[in-house]
Amino acid sequence: MHDYIIIDNCFHPIKLFDMKKYFFFLALLPCLSACMDMKLAAVNLPSRFNDNAIQTMQYDSKNALNLDIYTPTQVTANTNVVIFFYGGRWETGEKSDYRFMGALLADHGYIAVLPDYRKYPRVHFPAFVQDGAAAVAWVAAHYPGRRIHIAGHSAGAHIGALIAADHSYLKKYNLDPDLTITDFIGLAGPYDFTPAGDDLEKIFGPPANYPRMQVPTFITGHEPPMLLMWGEDDKDVAAYNLGRLAGKIHAAGGDMAVKIYPGVDHAGMMKAFTWVEPDSPVRRDFFDYLEAHQ
């Protein structure tokens, strides 16, 4: 694993650790070979036998949007909430695919909230970010006084980062992201790309819209603390997404940490939270960051 500092928008390694190679159970888990077409029955199986209560609640009646809540066996007034947005190129996925993530967060003592959101072709940008903000507002209203952490993978990281950086999304609910959101953890997020490809151009276009979907546009240095995580073998989300956002936060004097992992690809960032890799450094760093910001 590499820890990095950002200087002049470039990565500079400060520590290097050898990371143990893990066997990828391809025969059993073909679903993890491509993030955008995950079929997660195998990795979700252990989560169906844990003791954490799962409750489905509607957070947007107009658009019939629900979220799943995973509650730890012991909850106190200090129990933190983690909202996790799943990925899928803003086109695929649903919250039930990520039961393993909700169960793992609850096992670590967090109230986990996994919202669904509308996707293309049903909607275009910024509708799915607006849905994410509605979910955050619902959590803030139903869990007052608790620390709220936001995390996401891929498209979900993009959604979460925009909610944290662009005040307009939560302003609709009279919420300030700097006060509402304790921190943000992004797993392989496409934060600063120019849409290329017919579907992405339709999702985010016209081109005059693009600055509004690029997270660095909104960075001032006063955002919630951010942990940006990325795997060196990621062929789906290029390194410049991380580099540009990290460089903008660094230049603005914001609170940020960057973690880059050799041998980890796009789907591998989520595989780290399944039973396949219980000792993954990705998982360890994720929970260490949450614990440090409680």
What does it look like?
By secondary structure, the chain is an alpha/beta fold. The chain has a single domain (2-292), classed as Alpha/Beta hydrolase fold, catalytic domain (Rossmann fold). 30% of the residues lie in helices and 21% in strands. A ten-stranded mixed β-sheet has the order 2-1-10-9-8-7-5-6-4-3, sandwiched between helices. The chain is globular, with a radius of gyration of 18 Å.
Please sum up the structure shown:
By secondary structure, the chain is α/β, with parallel strands linked by helices. It is built from 11 helices and 10 strands.
Low-confidence regions: 4-39
User: What is the CATH architecture annotation?
Assistant: 3-Layer(aba) Sandwich
Gap from first CA to last CA: 24 Å
> How many separate domains?
1
Q: What is the total tally of β strands?
A: 10
- What is the CA-atom radius of gyration, in angstroms? 18 Å
CATH homologous superfamily? Alpha/Beta hydrolase fold, catalytic domain
